[in-house]
Amino acid sequence: MTRPESQAHTRAALVRAARDLFVTEGLANTSLARVAEAAGYSKGAVYSNFQSKNELCLEVLELIHAETLAELDGLRTSAGPIGERLTAMANWARTRVADVALTRLAFELALAGRDDPRLRDQLAAKLAATRSAVAGLLGTLGASGDRDALAATAAAVFSMVTGLAAQRTIDPRVSADQVASILPKLLAAGSPEKLNDIQIKLDNPNLERFSTKAKRTDRSGASRTALLDAAIAIFAVKRFDEVSTTEIARRAGVAIGLVNYHFGGKRGIYLAAADAVHTDFWDSLQALRGPAVSRLIQGLDLYFAHAERFQGSPLALSTRATDPELQAIHERHFDQLVAAMLQEVSGGPSTALIRTSVAGWLAFAEGAVADWLRTRELSRVQVRELLLANFFAAAQAVLALDPGTPLSSRAINALFDHVPPLDDEKTEHDR
């Protein structure tokens, strides 16, 4: 085992031990020394991997969130009648309500995040991503309505589960079975007739399934969608010259002639697949809700998931494509992303200095994630924290070079909230 591999192994063991202790004994009652002991390491091993207890909390939060998303995605992709799947979701919600220890930890993390912008923003991003995952699940369970309708229903379900769980930490007589009776009513309330004023079905945050933006119900549209989904799945793992139109058609379950009919051949469907992947990623970003920093964190998580799925694939969101037409697709979507970030940062017309800074940061993010995928020497949390710190450092550099740079109120508030703390600031909570 190499030194980086050994360090990653140690870090993962400490995070797992911390998660178990935080859940069973509580965050406040668990010292870093106790975490080290439970993991079989010295306290020095903890401090060599984590600067503070809150930094360890970030990793624990990431682990718990990944487990939650895996559970929800398993429910979303499971087969069976709607009734059985609805029961499975109710059972999942019932289990969450009954898990007093996990609820207590959630509140302790929220309290710890009051004075720690990093932890607070991560908590907000994880809550938003969980609500999005619930919305995606509801969309497969017969909940009607468009994007905002499903988002509203998901928020109601999430709030119900959270509220009952909070009550149960105080009064164990609060029944977790209430979820099973209320859930069908919430799903029914999501119909357009009953919720005319709301609109969202959020895209899956893990980006595990891509499709065309518009789902046409006619046979021609269905065959085109099937071909495009098949092409994306195949080109995600194979080079262009390794793929045949026969393979794409067979996977899609349609006649091979439809590849030429819809796309003009293998080259056409290849470029259409790349454009669809970029468009779906953009749509996922557009669907994000919450404070600016929370959305930035959610966006990074979406990019991590995308990069892992399309690692080494020409469909990846990369500006390094050598194919001129593929590069043109990448650049068009890259410019779209830069423009959106400039609007978020400056709230209107921007300067060349800001644009260069934003474009440079996006390029840095692409390179950092590519290196992370290749080496895995850092955890996802560490890479995300690096990217966030670099983003705010770049913003501060822009202001240092041009103090008159126009910034939106959201950007100003985020900058004030993310001034790096002094290294020697430690509290009893860190010991």
List keywords for this structure.
mainly alpha, 70% helix, 18 helices, Tetracycline Repressor, domain 2, 431 residues, globular
What does this structure look like?
It is a single chain. The chain is an all-alpha fold and 431 residues long. The protein has 3 domains: 116 residues, no CATH class; 78 residues, Tetracycline Repressor, domain 2; 133 residues. 70% of the residues lie in helices and 0% in strands. The radius of gyration is 23 Å and the shape is globular. The C terminus is likely disordered.
Could you give a short description of this structure?
The chain is mainly alpha-helical.
Mean model confidence by pLDDT: 83
Q: Unreliable runs, pLDDT <50, ≥5 residues?
A: 191-217, 421-431
Radius of gyration: 23 Å
String of helices and strands: HHHHHHHHHHHHHHHHHH
Helix content: 55-70%
| Helical stretch tally | 18
Supply the number of structural domains. Answer: 3
The outline comes out as globular
Major sheet attributes: none
Question: Helices and strands: which structural class?
Answer: mainly alpha
